[in-house]
Every structure is written in C-alpha cells, then in structure tokens.
Design goal:
By secondary structure, the chain is mainly alpha-helical. The chain has one domain. Helix content is about 85%, strand content about 0%. The longest helix has about 30 residues. It starts with 8 loop residues before the first helix and ends with a helix. The N terminus is likely disordered.
C-alpha cells in the first residue's frame, strides 16, 4: 500500500522547515506587521496577498523545474539582485522618513490610507525581486520530492507550503491589526519605523553586495 505524498516524512519535514522560515521575522513579516498596525487589517491582508502571490510564482517555477534553469542565467539573477536591493533600500527610506516625522506631519504627508491595489503590488514586488525565494523553493521541492516525483506530488508540496504561507502571513495581519496592537504601535511608532528602516536597509545592502 503506497503512502500518500502529503503523509510522507520528507514532505512533513519540508512543511516544518518552510513554516519556520516563513514565520521567522523578516522583511515581509515586518512590513505586514507595520501596515497592519498603521493602516488596519484590510491593508495588511492586501499586502500579504501580494507576498503570497509572489511566493506562488516562484513555487510553480520550482515545481516545474524551471527555477533551476533560471539560476543558470547569471544576467537575470544579477538583475533581480540589483532591482530587489534597490527596492529594499527604497522601503528603508520610506520607513526612515516615517520614523523621522512627528505623527501629525506623517498623517498630512500620507494623505490617507494607501490603496489596496498599491499595497498588493508592493507585497508582490517584495517577493518577486528576492532571488533567495528561488533558492528556498528549490530546496523545499528537492527536500520533499522522491527521486521519481510525479506532478500531483509536486503540486501537493506547493499547495501545502502556500497554505502555510497564507496562514502565517494572514495571522500576522490579523494579530497586529487588533485595537491593542494599534495602540501599542502608536506609542512606539517612531522606534518601530526606525527599526524597519534598519532591517530593510541592511537587507538591501546585503542583496546588492552578495556574490552571485
């Protein structure tokens, strides 16, 4: 009697590894947290949806075996690194500017809540321009796949990891958009935005200076 792919030890181990990596604090989670506390639950869910869709794109490439081929094109990877690093530095600038401004000046500069479509696009770009996402998905697929893995098996891996990603990112959006979290955010807003500026800045510089 064959074991279902979703119950195999390798797949469960890959799911666990992906959950730990996704739930660990990083640029995406910190951005969702900041957006949830500053702009509310809908805004955070829109940004999280963009992150998940970006992850889905890399996941499908990995499942189809195309991401390994992309890694062979050094020019494409270099372009992704440059664009992704510059995008992270831009996010660092925005967070730093927000931290520098008083609350009243920030509200006047923002001119209201950002549109949900713009937030979705920001989340999508944050994940699409991260070359490390390709490597992560290649590792997950390779770890969970048997030597002769079939297409349904690969789709099981991708679907399971994407469900984990939606759960994690959705939980961040829901948790940090509660009234209590938003009150805490207002009291530490400048410190939090300053911390985000440092995280985004270091991540962008690391991406720009890392060797291919």
């Amino acid at each position: 009697m064959t074991t279902l792919p979703i119950l195999s030890a390798n797949v469960l181990f890959a799911y666990s590894a992906y959950f730990v990596g996704t739930a660990s604090p990083g640029p995406s989670n910190l951005a969702i947290m900041s957006i949830a506390t500053a702009d509310g639950r809908k805004a955070a869910f829109s940004f999280a949806a963009g992150v998940v869709c970006g992850s889905c794109f890399w996941a499908m490439l990995a499942a189809l075996g195309l991401s390994a081929a992309l890694l062979a094109f050094s020019g494409l990877m270099a372009g992704l690194k440059i664009f992704g690093g510059c995008y992270l530095l831009w996010l660092a600038f925005k967070s730093g500017r927000s931290a520098w401004q008083p609350r009243a000046a920030q509200a006047q500069t923002a001119g209201g809540n950002p549109s949900l479509r713009r937030l979705y696009t920001r989340g999508l770009l944050l994940h699409l321009t991260n070359p490390k996402a390709i490597l992560v998905w290649i590792s997950v697929v390779a770890l969970a796949s048997p030597p002769n893995g079939s297409a349904p098996h690969m789709l099981t891996i991708v679907a399971g990891c994407l469900a984990i990603g939606m759960l994690v990112f959705g939980s961040y959006a829901a948790l940090f958009s509660t009234p209590f979290a938003r009150r805490v955010y207002l009291s530490v807003r400048r410190w939090l935005d300053g911390g985000l500026a440092v995280v985004f800045g270091l991540a962008g510089l690391k991406l720009l200076t890392a060797r291919a």
